[in-house]
Write a structure and sequence with these properties.
Length: 144
Amino acid sequence: MDDREALAYLADREAIRDLVHRYAVGVDRKDWATVRACFTADAACDYAWFRGDLDTVLGHIERGLAQFQTTMHLLGTHLAEVTGDTASAETYAVCHHRLARPQGLADRIVGMRYLDGLVRTALGWRIARRDVVVAWQRLDPVPA
């Protein structure tokens, strides 16, 4: 790989990382247009709790997150492999969800990995396939 190819490869990997981060920011801001724009129109998703086409999955995400006062998706380890106009990426996430319950506030915390199949489009990289693997989750009461 020459320098020009290496720079293009690194630029693609950074664009993919940016896309995954844009998704997390969109979810936490409940900016559904931004979230939708991270995917291809025909994306297929399996979020462990629900699966289906993009409209079905985004509907589940929007309704599911409506129960929380706030969320914060923290992204960590990220590995992307680019092959031409397709790529795969694995991103670790710890997702915090603040929930108001009759007995008081609680934090639902989920450790998971996003496994993404991506394609280069005229608008940039987009997620065509997403699988979410849940490693652990817990519900912690928030001290008064």
